[in-house]
Amino acid sequence: MSIPWLTLAIALPALGALVVALLPRERAELGRRLTLGVTLATLLLVVAMAFNFDPSGPRFQFEEVIPWIPRFGVYYAVGVDGIALLLIVLSALLVPLVVLAAWRERDDNGGTPGAAGSADAERAGSGNGYFALILLLEAMMIGVFAAMDVFLFYVLFEAMLIPVYFMIGRYGRGAERRRAAVKFLLYSLFGGLLMLVAVIGVYALSARSGAGTFLWADLVGADGALAGLDPATARWLFLGFFIAFAIKAPMWPVHTWLPGAAGSSRPGTAVLLVGVLDKVGTYGMLRYCLELFPEAARWFVWPVVVLSLVSIVYGAVLAIGQSDMMRLIAYTSVSHFGFITLGIFAMTTQGQSGAALYMINHGFSTGALFLVAGFLIARHGTGAIADYQGVQKAAPLLAGTFLVAGLSSLALPGLSPFVSEFLVFVGTFAFHPVPAVIASVGVVLAALYILWMYQRTMTGPLPPALSRLRDLSGRELWAVGPLIAVIIAFGVYPKPMLDVINPAVEQTMQQVGVSDPAPALGHVDQAANGGEGASE
Amino acid sequence: MPHTALAAPVITTQPPQIDYALLAPLLVVFAAGVIGVLVEAFVPRPRRRAVQFTLAALALVAAFVLTVVRVALLPAGGAGLTVASASIAVDRPTLFFQGTILVMAIASLLLIAEHRHGESAFAAQAATVPGSEEERAHVLAGSQHTEVYPLVLFAVLGMLMFPASNDFLTMFIALEVMSLPLYLLCGLARRRRLFSQEAAVKYFLLGAFSSAFFLFGIAMVYGYAGSVNFAVIHDTVAAGGAGALPGGGPLLLLGIALVGVGLLFKVGAVPFHSWKPDVYQGAPTPITALMASGTLVAAFGALLRVFYVAFGGSVAEWRPMMWVVAVLTMVLAAVVAVTQRDIKRLLAYSSVVHAGFVLTAVVAASAEGLAGAMFYLAAYGFTTVGAFAVVTLVRVHEGGAESGDIASWAGLGRTSPVLAGSLALFLLAFAGIPLTSGFIGKFAVFEAAVSAGATPLVVVGVLSSAVTAFFYVRIIVLMFFAEPAEARPRVLRPGRLTGAVIGVGVVATLVLGVFPGPVLDRLSPAPGAGTAEAQSVPGGFATTADLFANR
Amino acid sequence: MTPDTLDARAGHALAAAAEPGFAAFGTDPWWITLIKALVIFVFLMVCVILMIMADRKVMGRMQQRHGPNRFGPWGLLQSLADGVKLSLKEDLIPRKVDRVVYIAAPMISAIPAFMAFSVIPVGPEVTMFGVQTPLQLTDLPIAVLLVLATASIGVYGIVLAGWASQSPYPLLGGLRASAQVISYEIAMGLSFVAVFIYAGTLSTSEIVDAQRPIWFAVVLFPSFVIYLITMVGETNRLPFDLAEGEGELVGGFMTEYSSMKFLLFFLAEYVNMVTVAALSVTLFLGGYLAPPPITTFWAGANEGWWPVLWWLLKFLAVMFLFIWLRGSLPRVRYDQLMQLGWKLLIPVQLVWITAVAVIRVMRNEGAPPVALGAVILGFFVVTLAALAAWSRAADRRRAAEDAEHAERIRALREDPMHGGFPVPPMDAPHYGSSVPAEELRSARPAPTPPTDKREEVTGA
Amino acid sequence: MELYAPIFVLGGIGAAFVVVSMIAGSLLGPKRYNRAKLQSYECGIDPTPQPVGGGRFTIKYYLTAMLFIVFDIEVIFLVPWAVHLDALGVFGLVAMVLFLVNVSIAYAYEWRRGGLEWE
Amino acid sequence: MDPMNYIVLAAIVFTIGAVGVLVRRNAIIVFMCVELMLNACNLAFVSFARMHGNIEGQVIAFFVMVVAAAEVVVGLAIIMQVFRTRRSASVDDANLLRH
Hints:
The structure holds 5 protein chains of 5 kinds.
Chain B: H1 2-7, H2 20-42, H3 45-73, E1 81-83, E2 88-90, H4 92-113, H5 133-141, H6 148-161, H7 168-186, H8 193-225, H9 230-239, H10 249-267, H11 275-282, H12 285-310, H13 315-338, H14 343-364, H15 367-393, E3 394-395, H16 412-415, H17 417-431, H18 437-451, H19 455-481, E4 490-491, H20 496-514, H21 517-523, H22 529-535, H23 544-547
Antiparallel strand pairs in B: 1-2, 3-4
Helix pairs in contact in B: 2-3, 2-6, 3-4, 4-6, 4-12, 4-15, 4-20, 6-7, 6-12, 7-8, 7-12, 8-9, 8-10, 8-11, 10-12, 11-12, 11-14, 12-14, 12-15, 13-14, 13-19, 14-15, 14-18, 14-19, 15-17, 15-18, 15-20, 17-19, 17-20, 18-19, 18-20
Chain C: H1 11-18, H2 30-62, H3 78-87, H4 99-116, E1 123-128, E2 131-135, H5 143-164, H6 168-199, H7 204-210, H8 216-219, H9 221-234, H10 246-249, H11 259-283, H12 292-297, H13 306-328, H14 334-364, H15 369-414, H16 438-441
Antiparallel strand pairs in C: 1-2
Helix pairs in contact in C: 2-11, 2-13, 4-5, 4-11, 5-6, 6-9, 6-14, 9-11, 9-14, 11-13, 14-15
Chain D: H1 5-28, H2 51-54, H3 59-83, H4 85-112
Helix pairs in contact in D: 3-4
């Protein structure tokens, strides 16, 4: 135990947020540069940490445990396994890109430019606030993935709402943003409060024998504080956690906040919201629902699988019907999250590995989609699909990146999401063939909505209104380029990620007390490596 | 023989021993109040304000220091002491409540003393008829009511005594000493005097009504136990009744119910909450701040002491009642609060909801419940004082009345980000968002309730939290996301005193939210110690009285 | 302490045992009680009649005239004739009155007046028709409080009479009367406190017993004086009869009353006089005990029925004092009356009670005489200093008033409008001017018009 | 109770007298109806309405009533104290002196602020 | 007489007071009803004191009187002030604070 990697990774952006927030309004430029610097430094730190991670070592590494509120057995306990590590890396990677993308965005507060009053208001409200919130959010995101204490996790899980709430409501776009922000907050808060009951329940139950604790490590396992829980109680507690995560994830039928929130946010906010924040939901299911209440998790498998399938199909169908790009991408995410939960609750190694990988890859692909869509919207000022046509003629680079991002979203082989989606399918099929078949409908629909959207916006004759559309600038290329590169790179060679994920998944499976169905598929990375178009 | 005892009442020739050191804070506050009255009588008018403020501030600070010092006077091992013929209990809960009340009182005093162009929040001359020439003359002459200071001191004295009372008589006196000055203070608002007077009348009539119930409840309990001393009542309950009145069970039940009514009224729990919105809205805002923090803390302190010590042996009897009241309070108040359009009314309803949350801890009847309630009250007190401090600054126009209409607060986040940010923080704390004190408080009380097996209550509490979050969030939306209103309110620059109060509120809200450990540790015995007892329902509840180790 | 000890059957014995020192009371046969009650009633009625008579006769003598002298020997039956005449008058009930209260008010006033006398001891235990019984209807551990309580109830009669009449004079009269009575009741109550300190009881018979060594009027002279003053104030007698001051309020609260109801108020007033006088005898003048010089040479003076004589003599002396005061003193102004009560009697009483208590406790605790003397001296000094300060303040106030008056005169003189003559200003009230007179009088300039300080002071 | 009974006997005699005399008075007196007789004693001024609701009591009277209550309470405390002063000794003396000081302070306040000025 | 009768009487008086508070509209009468309730409490205290044979109840009754007096002083001041402003003491007229 030498370097407190995780604490540094949390503290750096948190301090950065404080500094940026305290900068005077006139120093907006400095604020942006500072933000970018801090996020890049964090990225470097996280990457360095990732290289120090030993896949063959213990499951949790970089652990730090410091008492926080002894009265409730609460600790500041952080540590990462493979899944959390990758999610942290994802967050650290996406944030600088979002900062770059948001570099020149003007505050869209509905005021007409030129009017003195609103210009004044714009200046007052724009600038450092947004960047400070991004930094704060980054700190919390890293913290929430690193948390090894249920209480700490819960605190950050809830506290994250506030920066996002302001990022949507204060710095979002469109007239609906206020309602969207409130809806987002109330949905999340509602789920969070149910989870609070469950968290308190966990504590009270852990206090049955001796002092209560929130330490994840003390709670799980056969000799953990929650062992021997009576099934009914465990199921209620599971439900408390699960509903909160399902809202966050977002899962049908509690997904309705997402399209509004994503549609009303800045593209950067949407990237973080869908790319990282919602992963907290699925991550929570994997880490907390399954491992704290293994018996209940097994009991709930079928309901969750059904909900996941509904999400997959429903999200895809609604995506097709959308007329707004941002909302469309948001609905595709509902569908994708269905795949992730399906993978998790398939209770097979492949399924869970795929789901974990899916979380990362979905972050890349959706992030890229949102960013490019955001660039387009920033140019033309509208998100409606009907307002665009033939963009590829005016802005080929933009259209190209958009295509790659879209293809990755529909899991084209060779691009990274394919690996994860494939694994989920394999895992699900091993669990039960029917869900796998139904889920495959989602794949077909994905092709439909992505390609159709591309066709409607990018192809065809270029209308005069769009003729002066600029192509991607250097800054924008820097923002979206790394994502495209990562998508392609891991599409071809996903092994490093799987190496990190697999041990964690195996531990989880063991914890839950399930094992793969009898005819095992061999080791997953072999399946993935030979997975180029190969089928069972 | 009862009659002989009556005829020749035992007048003890042994004068009672009084440990003045343990009563010092009370005596200091009382003495300052009395001196304040003399100051009113003999110090020339122009100098009165300065003298009164200095006197009051010194007294409160001294009382606070003495309260802290008294912690060292307590015997080790969590035991407490009783003073003045066992009428006042000095134990850890007492000291915590008194310390909290004093801090709240100091903060409120700063708001009360805040002056702007020679005007305070109080009427120039309360005796004049609003709108009359006489009133105008007083306003122009710059008259001011410096009586406010002694009145506040007396109210604080009552608040300090209320949770420390160890028998019902002292408690009743403390209740009245606390309430009577507040009734008057409510009617002294400088602006909207009709509102203010109306608030005073309502508060007074309902307050007197409720204290009559309280008193009749005491009479019933006295009839049952033959004494009003909490320890004696506790023992009598344990023994199954007093000798003179076998089968007095109904008396006890009636007594518990009526005493409960009186205390729940002061706390402002549904269905005894109807005074709160009106009074909070009508009273001068600094006084509202005092009531929302100090009075609430004191009332809950008394409630806890009565129900944990005196009625600690009959938890099974009062628990259902508290359940119902807590549920009603959390649900109804939250729903009604959603429709409010005035910030002070909204904060009043929010205070009602919070009372409901604390009641869930009371229901727990355990060490955790006590500690949770104590922490919650302290956290809520700081936050609410800060919130009302912000309210004092938003005016319809420079030098005008406070702008209570929430709609007119639109866009405040743009024009005064710091102020709006502070208020937003307070509102988030009310909503119980993590990393604020409100969250830890909520966690503490809910945890206590769950440990005591009141999980359904906690679920109700959580759902009502979600509803309350809605209206807190609505204000934040208005302030930060909406365009500034046409008739935008004028935001005064916070004076030094108000600024200090807001600053303290912000700091306390954050510190208690992020590092609650030290405070929580001092509130309760080692974690887990009380839990085992609490769960062995219902016989184990005899030990709740030991939480207040004053017996 | 079992419930059956509370049984009603056991009550009698218990009650007797309950009040030590009251063994002599509450044990009379019913007929003795009835006889005593009737005697008291008759005594009160006779007293009232004679008192009214004496009032007029003595006043007449004091004013160099005869007074009533037509009915009976020396006009002794004049009051009786008046009473008969009044009761035969038409009984009017004005149309707008609140009938129930209007009729009840005289009853409320009169009945308690009778009851108060029941605790006045007029003699020690005597043998009456073979029964050993004290010459006192009854005694209570709280006897003096009973007197105060009945007096308080009497106030309701006054207020209600004024209120029920629905007319300004009675209303104002009733209010004034009640304000006055309650003001003086405090001073009266305080004057008893010193007596209680010395007697250690509230029972009238024991208070009388406690005066065997020396009358309280001597030891507690200030209390006695104050009691005499408040006694007059309580009964609305001259010089404190403002409630029915004919010049200002016509007949006060009784204005609307006639015939028997009027008579009842009158009766109540005189019965109250009798009661307070009897109380003063009981509390301060040694009750039925023989005056000190007599007992030294005649041991039997306090035996048998003789004490009734001593009591009667003292009582008559106090009653004479009432008449004497009425004959000698002018009626005071209302504000003077209230100021006397609130600003003089009460503070003096507070200091006096403190002094009495301190000295008493010091003596009980065996403090050395020097310390005792020093304390007494201290109280003297404090009292003198307070008095000096008070008179200085009064002088200053009077001087200030004079100066203000002179200033006003000067202002009037120099006002060119009046040509330097002290004529009433044209804008004085009743001159039909719209400008209120106050503005001229105040030398200060009118308040500056509100400019920056304009604010909405009310507004709902 | 036996101690109190005679008081009620005396009160009963008094009440009987009062009631009988009032009835007698109303029976014996002549009844000659005359509109003017039934008017209130007032020279052409309308009788005043009921005070409660109409309310023309001067504030001063309320003030007097309040003052009375305060001091009456003081007397309530003084009386039992006085009776038992010998038993209470120095403690009782000090307690009561403190009480009197407090009341005096309130009294001084009232006086200084003009609460004791009439007309 | 069975002391319990006094308790019943106290309860009845208390109820009358409480009902009065709830149904009467004049602030002063409401206030008087509250005083009635306090006096009912005193009756109960004194009766219980006799039943239990200790003086605690009587002492309480004393303090209640004091409190009642203080309440009268404060209450009358407040009610009179409103009454002077509005020329009415009806609690129904006081409705500015309804939303």
